[in-house]
Amino acid sequence: MTRTEIEEKVKNFLIEEIEIDEEKIVPDAKLREDLGIDSLDFVDIVVIVEKNFGFKIRQEEMIGVDTLKKFCDYIETKVN
Amino acid sequence: MRRVVITGMGIWSCLGTDVEQVKESLKGGVSGIGIEEIRLEYGFQSSLTGIVEKPVLKGMIDRHLRRGLSEEAEYAFMASSQALEMAGIDDGYLNSHEVGCIFGNDSSAKPVIEAERIMQEKHDTELLGQSFIFQAMNSTVTMNLSTIFHLKGINFTVSAACASGSHSIGLGYMFIRNGLQDMVLCGGAQETNLYSMATFDAIGAFSKRMDNPAAASRPFDRDRDGLVPSGGAAALVLEDYDHAVARGATILAEVVGYGFSSNGTAVISQPSDEGCERAMRMALRDADLGVGDIDYINAHATSTRQGDMYEAIALDRMFRGEHALISSTKGMTGHECWMAGASEIVYSLIMMRDNFVAPNVNLENRDEYSAPLNLAEKTVETRVDTVLSNSFGFGGTNSALIIKKIQ
Is the pTM of this model over 0.95? Predict the structure, then answer.
């Protein structure tokens, strides 16, 4: 899966399922502070990522993943 | 003891999704019953159900507040929004006062079953997501409403089968009367999805008159063949009388009596004339009223032979020769189950406001028990000042409420 495809899929689920405003979705956006993703949203994101990318997010691997760019980096390493 | 009044009402049912729509249906004797074909494929004996519109909440409230809402909690949100608006209660008031929330609800089957299906496939709770827990508990309605509206008072759910909604109002009334709360949002909610009703269908309780849905629910009629499941939500703002007057609220009616009982019989599904009579007499005593003071009785009668018979026996024993008109609105609505006790207070308030008694539709041939009752077979234009509303449930739980117009 290309980086562009990953970013497009992430953007789509953030807009459609987490209902985040499109203009907020930029690479440097902080997941918690800028996008407002809380711990319960994250429980849903685990399910959404599993459906879209075919792997399960592990909490311990998410340490330090605090921006959208880092989140896409993480998905990229897992899917490729 | 303080006086308790109703200052707001809201309704989301198969008769309409606001008070004015529902009034038109009630007055016109219009049925809200239809067919959901998939029920037969799923394995039901009957595809009859109340047809309740699904609210669209996206864009109305934030996802963070929406994600825990079960089907019935969505209905309850819509009904509660209407009730609070009618009562003149806004966010500012809710944020600065201690408003309680008591709703009747006795199941939330769909999220339980959907979560179980995922577990069967994935065997991993981390793949369930976060919504199911807040949707699957019986208290889904009160936990969600109290969060959405920032309620700071009493907060719990009443599970008492088909008397749940009625008991919620009785309890809200007691909290206010005893000075523990000034205002309580009360009501009842009922899911309509097929998962929620399969176990009820299992006992053969539902009408199979699928060729004529509008004629399927026939309370007190000789030729009834069972009830029709239905749902939605009803909400009421209960308030201390002095509190309502002080803030200039419009008072719809006063709650003057609450009576309850348990049948204590050996069969879990068997109603009892003696049990429902005790609840009605207790409500009358509480209200300091006699049988002759009641203008209208909204009967529980669900269109089952046993249930209708026992209620008819009790009503005849108590009200024979009295002027009270009787009807069961379930001929139009079907059985709104956990919600019914609250919705039927809303229906009664509408009749009280607009001076009519809604008809007991589909009553073509009475049986020996309903024959002596003063049943309203057609809509009756009449002044309605005092209403008795009955609700009975499995396990013998009975609730009777009396509301009265404030002169």
Answer: yes
